[in-house]
Model the fold of this input.
Amino acid sequence: MTPAPATRPSASASASASASASASASAPPGARGELRIGDVARLVGTTPRTIRYYEEMGLLGEAATARPAGGHRLYTPDEVQWLRELIRLRDLLGVSLEQLGELVEAEAARALLREEWDRRQPGRERRREILLEALGHLDGQLELVRDRLGQLRTLEDELTERRRRVKARLRSP
Amino acid sequence: MTPAPATRPSASASASASASASASASAPPGARGELRIGDVARLVGTTPRTIRYYEEMGLLGEAATARPAGGHRLYTPDEVQWLRELIRLRDLLGVSLEQLGELVEAEAARALLREEWDRRQPGRERRREILLEALGHLDGQLELVRDRLGQLRTLEDELTERRRRVKARLRSP
DNA sequence: TAAGAACCTGACGTTGACGTAAAGATGATA
DNA sequence: TATCATCTTTACGTCAACGTCAGGTTCTTA
Done:
């Protein structure tokens, strides 16, 4: 249901790709490509309530929490993508929201660091630090994913073996 | 919509094996290899309450539901194994107990058929029927498992790619 | 500018998957 | 045979992850 690979902008001042040509033929809500909570919910296949709940749980970083004038929440395409990833991890890894928070809290920190990165060029040493942290974070997620993959592969093997046996008995009574 | 992850705190206590170790200083409870609910719970890493709940939900077949004299539940090794599989599917696929029930309800039917198989030799035609049903059932499970596998592989690829980029930037600033 | 759609913040309700406590029956063991 | 661990049912409690309703505000559009 979510075919879009859409990798996170892992660094550099990319940011571009303003998805202004989004669905409905309406004026840009946030003067830029920002979307309102209802549209975001439809896009990622959830409800506004859930998004607010995730914010309450601290799963959406500072940026997504910040509120523009008027009090209505607005989300950049990056934030929408971030939400998608959260949901994907939730569904595929089957972790609780709290575990999910721990799992990605480094990611939130990374977003902050990225800002620092963009604004004032950090020194060589600082850059290394930031990149290493991102690396450790990715390794953490990868370990979880690979663990799951291993278990699922084992299960697949067992099921396949059973299937093979049933088929054998179908051929030779 | 949400598959609702298991509320269990620690992932898997497993601690399988030691099937005979528990029988070290105790007489066989069910005159055969049958175990009582507490032992079963320890073996599969859950609680008696959960096992009773699964029975209540109809996840344990007729056999496991049948009660010997005294009213205490007794489980054969096969039934213990069945419970293990249920828990594994629950954890790995992250499905609700209701979905789990649908997913394996054919399995329950299969258990009944197997009994029939053992007791009176079914005719060639009937055997075919039974085997074909088992096959369809296995295919159903396999499809779900493989679907999950595909999604997880995609996720792994994406994470690996990000990792690669971070490492590249670590080498060449 | 007036209406209606969408959003806001509480705050209480719901559902699934169990936990837990009570009061008594059963089983194993000394 | 007494004692104690384990089992039984019944029933209420809990926790996460939202759903839903109320009363008010903001946006968008005719």
Notes: Residues 1-28 of chain A have pLDDT under 50 and may be disordered.
